[in-house]
Specification:
Blueprint: H1 9-13, H2 18-34, E1 39-43, E2 46-50, E3 54-60, E4 64-68, H3 73-78, E5 92-96, H4 103-115
Length: 116
């Protein structure tokens, strides 16, 4: 992968297909609606939103978009049932590109992270 030096989320978005861009813009809009005071930054060369610390990151890949953060044990317990069927790791949730974007789930995740 080529070295990048994104300075803004808009710069990050520019390198993706229209379909991926639309999905990322939907996620960005959700975050900004639920946490209007969140600050948009680039961290680790991916979009990040800060609100009393790191709120949530997202990043795009050929077959999915990841929501990421060092999620807490309480987070995983709360979303255990909702995340069945999604590929997850300690710090990421993969949202497959070949399935509809789970808008309501994303809203709930962002609201939960805001409360945390």
């Amino acid at each position: 992968m080529a070295k990048t030096n994104y300075q803004t989320i808009d710069e990050y978005h520019q390198v993706f297909s229209a379909e991926t861009l639309e999905r990322m813009q939907t996620i960005r809009k959700i975050i900004n609606e639920i946490v209007p005071d969140a600050k948009e930054i680039i961290s680790y060369q991916i979009p990040c939103f800060k609100y009393n610390g790191y709120l949530i990151f997202y990043s795009a890949y050929p077959n999915h978009i990841s929501l990421s953060n060092p999620f807490t044990a309480d987070f995983w317990e709360h979303f255990k049932v909702d995340l069945e069927g999604y590929k997850t790791s300690k710090s990421a949730i993969q949202l497959p590109a070949n399935k509809p974007l789970p808008v309501q789930l994303i809203k709930e995740i962002v609201a939960f992270r805001k409360r945390e």
